[in-house]
Amino acid sequence: MKLKQGIGVVFNVKDINRTEKFYKDILGIQVERQSGGDEPDWLMATLGNGVELMFFEGEEQIGRSPIIVFELEDGYMETVLESLSEKGVEIVNPVSEAPGGWSADFKDPDGHPLAFYQLGSLPLK
Fold first, then answer.
1. Based on the number of CB atoms within 10 Å of its own CB, is 77 exposed (0-12), middle (13-18) or buried (19 or more)?
2. Rounded distance, CA 70 to CA 115, Å?
3. CA 124 from centre of chain
4. Residues 113 and 105 sit within 8 Å (Cβ to Cβ)
5. Helix intervals (H) in the chain
6. For residues 111 and 61, which has the higher predicted lDDT (pLDDT)?
7. For residue 89, which of 70, 73, 66, 74 has the smallest C-alpha distance?
8. What is the pLDDT of residues 75-115, one digit of tens each?
9. 70 in Cβ contact with 117 (< 8 Å)
10. CA 62 distance to own-chain centroid
11. Whether domain 7-119 has CATH 3.10.180.10
């Protein structure tokens, strides 16, 4: 497994407009609205040093964030998840589509939510 430099922090929020106003107007962070195509809009802020904040609206996820997201380089994400599972890591959500790529959620030993993200189309085995 090879991780890219940088880290993404994903927040699940109740109201995307309220969140945008808070981070832009109150904290002064440059937040950009992203079009989700068929999916609802979401927000992204690049803080520098490879740190990105992403905000998605969705009631079912409230209270289960932020999630630290590690971006994978080339490789087959399902193989990485199989390896983690064999080592006793709890896989919460298998590989699924995400904006611009693929993601999968898992937990650390204390139950903290973590995820992998891979840009583009899912590589073949």
1. buried
2. 6
3. 22
4. yes
5. 16-21, 77-86
6. 111
7. 70
8. 678 888 898 899 999 999 988 888 888 899 998 876 778 88
9. yes
10. 14
11. yes
Residue 34 · residue 80 · CB < 8 Å: no
Give the pair of three-digit tokens for residue 41: 């809009």
> Token pair of 46, please?
């690049």
- Classify 49 in phi/psi space as left (phi over 0), alpha (psi -120 to 50) or beta: left
Residue 105's nearest CA partner among 90, 119, 118 is 90
Q: What SS3 class is residue 85?
A: helix
Q: Residue 56: in which H helix or E strand, if any?
A: strand 51-57
In the chain, domain spans? 7-119
Structure token pair of residue 17: 């407009």
Q: Where are the alpha helices (DSSP H) in 16-123?
A: 16-21, 77-86
Is pTM beyond 0.70 here?
no
Of 9, 36, 31, the C-alpha closest to 20 is: 31
